[in-house]
Design a protein that fits this description.
5 domains, Arc Repressor Mutant, subunit A, 47% helix, Rossmann fold, 30 helices, binds adenosine-5'-triphosphate, seven-stranded parallel β-sheet, alpha/beta, eight-stranded mixed β-sheet
């Protein structure tokens, strides 16, 4: 047995006391193993253990040991929301005199100031962009922690993570590398890649019983439980059984729509209380989604998916932690990282739709991440996870494949053309490689090259190099052109830049709609789906055909134009609720798509300036309009803190059209329009030096 106090060999008293104050005394068995294998002696390590088995604590100890001997740590997470969560949690190290920093936001920044911190938290995309933009401190990292390292297997995010790790290891040969992962089969292979140890364990702080739900039977490998049949729907019987025992439940659904309708159904079976009503009343927003969510919350149920606004999600999470929300029906995104354990987990659907592939069963690893959410350490005696079957034969299949099955291997996804296009350009533009030889050497040190056929990687790299030369982003001798360097810094796919240049050049008089359409034509844009009720799109397209880019595929055109039209409504100040209804989206989608559009429009502004495309000013203004969701004439007023598009419009309509107009206004009139508090804030900003019309 190893206690936290035993770590005094490596860590000062202040660190030991910090953890003891949190009630941590004995180390969990996988933690003890990691220490024994040299985690605090600087060994590289893959720690592959179930959820809540204390991985983060190990990373913290290694970073603290590093920081106290003057080494900087970088902690890479997959999602921005997780970066904030970790930032809040690591901020407690300020008591030890350490500085913690977080890097989110603008991709083009170099962020030299971040380097003053002892611990820096960033997403893999942000870490990648910091390397591309030449932040000097990325060459002086002592400890690298990669959270959720199994995401190397993700087609979307894996290649960026892999290249970032490869480059950081290259720049910092002495750096300690720690990868935290869910249970995976080939952790040894990743450990070999980083030249480290592997700690792999199934140990969990709360016992987990895994089984299958078939009608009202909970079937476990070692026995069965029969639910009381109070309702025709077995899911509701399971919910009532859980809640009656004082427990909470997570229900994983495959789509947002299913999550919403399940939450609604569950809310019909649960009771309102003073607490649930109070929670529902704290929910902001008037749109369809907010109303649906409020109705569920009133009964202690909720749905949770990527279409919600961050503040809506936070309210649900808070309600769940306070045990006011009893049941959350969610999409699998909740399993990825969020720390919201429950007594019971139900995986209602183990199939998922994947574009181009149809409906497929989820991997065992994903099943385990969802199942692993069952059981709250210190609160539940055990957790129960159930996967739902519809027949006896399916029950057996699910039992064999998921409950008793082994998770899959992790496979590098680096060799895709799209990933390599971006990463080969970045590697050349940031002078990581200045010849085919040095590029090949770098690529030979990736996880892909270790794991899979390097000749395939070689072929794809050759075709990508050809594309980059043809697009004038690099020369034949692998020197970046100014355009190539710019595109890499802007952090867009080189193909996006090509689309922008070609389309803008192909249109005689580009308008606002043209620019919006062009950014939706790039591979970096997330597009809306087209539904039957969208038959207005065809009329819209024929009416505006001269303003649109040259999209040959009609199905894509419909999706692009629908997305562009949504952005047009947004910048024309159409109310969010109307946009939500008209485009059948949730508020979180609007926020996300607008963010992507703003980034791409700023990139178009920079490329236009560089290439003289003639839309520089228009794109610059449009990026701002997308940022605020407002008309051109409001941009000046929107620079003021506390003034959003609705208040800016009110001021404008009252005749205040510039900061000069506002300076001349009297306090009582402004108070009438904005309310006294906001008016005061505006007046004090106007008095600040440097605020001028
Ligand atoms: N040895 C320990 N004794 C008591 N509590 C511990 C111990 N180690 C970790 N914990 C606590 O258990 C909880 C989960 O730990 P931690 O966040 O490190 O797990 P994790 O494996 O990183 O989880 P996840 O997979 O969700 O990221 C935390 O509240 C942490 O403080």
């Amino acid at each position: 047995m190893l206690t936290i106090r035993d770590l005094i060999r490596w860590l000062p008293e202040s660190v030991i006391e910090l953890y003891e104050a949190l009630g941590i005394d004995e180390l969990y068995p996988p933690q003890a193993e990691a220490i024994e294998r040299g985690l605090l002696d600087g060994r590289n390590m893959i720690i592959s253990v179930p959820t809540a088995a204390g991985k983060t604590l190990l990373a913290e100890l290694a970073m603290l040991r590093g920081a106290l001997s003057g080494k900087r740590s970088l902690y890479i997470v997959p999602l921005r929301a997780l970066a904030s969560e970790k930032f809040e949690s690591f901020s407690r190290f300020s008591k030890l005199g350490l500085r913690v920093g977080i890097s989110t936001g603008d991709f083009e920044k170099r962020d030299e100031r971040l380097g003053r911190n002892d611990i820096i938290i960033a997403t893999s995309e942000k870490a990648d962009s910091l390397i591309r933009n030449g932040a000097s401190w990325v060459r002086r990292i002592g400890v690298l922690v990669v959270d959720e390292i199994h995401l190397l297997d993700s087609a979307n995010r894996g290649p960026t993570l892999e290249m970032t790790m490869t480059k950081l290891m290259h720049l910092n040969p002495e750096m300690q590398v720690i990868g935290l992962s869910a249970t995976i089969a080939n952790g040894r292979e990743i450990a070999d890649w980083i030249k480290g140890e592997i700690v792999s364990s199934d140990w969990r702080p709360v016992r987990l019983r895994e089984g299958v739900l078939l009608e009202d039977r909970l079937v476990f490998p070692d026995g069965e439980i029969q639910l009381e049949n109070r309702n025709r729907d077995p899911v509701l019987n399971l919910v009532l059984d859980t809640v009656d025992q004082g427990g909470q439940m997570l229900i994983f659904e495959s789509t947002r729509r299913n999550a919403e309708s399940m939450a609604k159904k569950v809310s019909g079976a649960l009771q309102e209380s003073g607490e649930t009503i109070e929670l529902a009343e704290r929910l902001s927003g008037e749109g369809k989604t907010a109303k649906k969510l409020a109705m569920c919350l009133r009964h202690g149920a909720a749905f949770h998916h990527a279409g919600l606004l961050p503040e809506q999600r936070r309210l649900i999470e808070l309600g769940f932690r306070q045990n006011v929300v009893k049941v959350i029906a969610c999409t699998p995104t909740l399993a990825a990282g969020l720390n919201l354990p429950a007594r019971r987990v139900l995986i209602r659907s183990y199939k998922r739709y994947e574009a181009g592939l149809g409906t497929r069963p989820i991997p065992v690893m994903e099943y385990r991440q969802m199942a692993g959410r069952a059981g709250r350490p210190g609160l539940d005696p055990y957790g129960e996870s159930l996967i739902m079957a519809r027949s006896e034969s399916e029950l057996q299949k699910l039992m064999d494949h998921y409950v008793m099955g082994e998770p899959e291997d992790i496979w590098s996804k680096l060799a895709s053309e799209r990933a390599l296009r971006t990463h080969v350009l970045a590697t050349i533009a940031s002078r990581f490689a200045d010849s085919v030889d040095s590029l090949s050497r770098l690529m030979a040190s990736t996880f892909y090259a270790r794991q899979q056929d390097p000749s395939y990687l070689g072929e794809t790299i050759a075709s990508v190099l050809e594309f980059l030369v043809r697009s004038d982003m690099i020369d034949k001798d692998l020197t970046p052109t100014p355009l190539g360097a710019l595109v890499s810094r802007l952090y867009i796919d080189p193909l996006s830049a090509m689309v922008m240049i070609q389309e803008i050049r192909g249109i005689r008089r580009p308008t606002v709609l043209t620019l919006l359409h062009v950014i939706t034509m790039t591979p970096d844009m997330e597009l809306l789906f087209v539904q039957q009720s969208d038959n207005w799109l065809e009329d819209f397209i024929s009416e505006h055909s001269s303003e649109l880019g040259n999209e040959k595929n009609f199905d894509w055109l419909l999706r692009e134009v629908k997305t562009a039209s949504m952005l047009m409504d947004w910048i024309n100040e159409v109310h969010e609720d109307r946009i939500e209804d008209r485009y059948s989206i949730s508020p979180g989608d609007l926020v996300r798509i607008a963010e992507t559009a703003e980034w791409l429009m700023s990139a178009l502004h920079r490329i236009s300036k560089h290439m003289d495309l003639g839309v520089t000013y228009l794109a610059e203004r449009l990026a701002l309009r997308i940022h605020y969701g407002a008309g051109d004439e409001l941009l000046q007023l929107l620079e003021l803190k506390g003034i959003g598009r609705v208040r800016a419009r009110k001021l404008y309509q009252a005749g205040y059209r510039s900061l000069e107009d506002l300076k001349a206004a009297d306090k009582s009139t402004l108070s009438e329009i904005l309310g006294p508090k906001i008016a005061e804030g505006v007046i004090s900003q106007l008095k600040e030096p440097g605020v001028s019309a």
